[in-house]
Structures are given as structure tokens and as C-alpha cells.
Amino acid sequence: MLTLGIIKPDAVAAGKAGKVFAHLEKAGFTVRAARMTRLSQGQAEAFYEVHRGRPFYDSLVAFMTSGPCIPMALECDDAVAYLRQVIGATDPAQAEPGTIRKLFAESKERNAIHASDSPENAAREVAFFFAESELKGLWG
Ligand code: CMP
After folding, report:
1. Each residue of 75-101: pLDDT tens digit?
2. Residue ranges of the domains in the chain?
3. pLDDT of 62 strictly over 80
4. Best residue for ligand 1 mutational test, from 94, 111, 113, 116 (most atoms within 8 Å of Cβ)
5. How far is CA 36 from CA 12, 69, 107, in A?
6. What is the assigned CATH class of domain 2-37+71-134?
7. Distance between CA atoms of 133 and 140, rounded to whole angstroms?
8. Ligand 1 centre and the CA of 108: distance in Å?
9. Which residues contact ligand 1 via a Cβ below 6 A?
């Protein structure tokens, strides 16, 4: 199955994107699609719509539009739950050793990587960034 990951602007700006890709591949994910992009205000607001009204929402949108990020469609068995395990807790201070956030995140907001939190959201989030043709076209 597929899930969506995003290498966030903090990790891209710090030159850690390659290490994050390597970590994901070593963990067993196949990168089915990826692109570097800079989210517009409207895209970031729409992507994080479920968090609208939370105290961190405006700051999160500002952070996610602050520079380029890399959305990725990642494939693996049980991809949604497994990616969340591999990236670790939202707050890097709480993340398990060896997880991507423990290794590369700066803070609860600037936390290096996003992962879909349910199969339903994974389907919505993969479709938010990638057309069906981009996911299937290269792979037959
Ligand atoms: P992400 O997995 O992308 O989903 C929502 C994001 O909001 C989360 O990672 C963090 O970047 C951010 N976030 C969640 N909780 C907080 C918080 N308490 N303070 C600041 N940012 C947060």
C-alpha cells in the first residue's frame, strides 16, 4: 500500500533530504513518486485543514510555506503504520532513538517529516500531490 511522506522545509534547508531518502529506503520503503515543490499559502492551508483552529495552525502553515519541501508517495506493506513508526513521535524529544525525527528534527513544529495518520488520509494526501498517472505511469 501507499502512504504520503513530506520531507519538510527544515530538513530540505539543512541539506538532510538525501539522508532521509536513504533512511526510508533502508527501512524498506519504495519511493513511487517524489518532487520538490514550494507550497502556496492555499495549498498548505488545505493540506492541514484538519488542524485549522488549533493554536499551532498559523505557525505550521507559515513554516510549511517557508521553503521547498519534498512530498513522496511511499510504498510498503502496512505503509501507513510502518512509516509513522519509522519517523517517530511528533516531538523529537519524545521520539525513539533511530527514528527520522530523533535523528533529523529540530522541534515539534520543525520536525523534518510528515506522515499520513490513517489509510483514509493517506489516500487523500497522496492524491493531493500526485496524479494517478504519475503513480502508475512509471511502473506499468
Ligand atoms: P505533521 O505530522 O506534519 O502534522 C501536523 C503538524 O503540526 C506536525 O507534524 C507538526 O509539525 C505540527 N504540530 C503538531 N503539534 C504541534 C504543536 N503542539 N506545536 C507546534 N507544532 C505542532
Report:
1. 999 999 999 999 999 999 999 999 999
2. 2-37+71-134
3. yes
4. 111
5. 9, 6, 22
6. alpha beta
7. 10
8. 6
9. 51, 56, 60, 90, 108-109, 111, 114
Alpha-carbon torsion angle 30, 78, 115, 85, nearest 10 = -100
* Residues paired with residue 74 on neighbouring β-strands, in sequence order: 3, 31
- Of the pLDDT bands very low, low, confident and very high (cuts 50, 70, 90), residue 136 is confident
Verify whether residue 51 is a known catalytic residue: no
Query: Which three cell numbers, joined as nine digits, stand for 24?
Result: 526510508
- The active-site residue, picked from 16, 84, 101, 114, is 114
| 60 CA from centroid of ligand 1 (Å) | 7
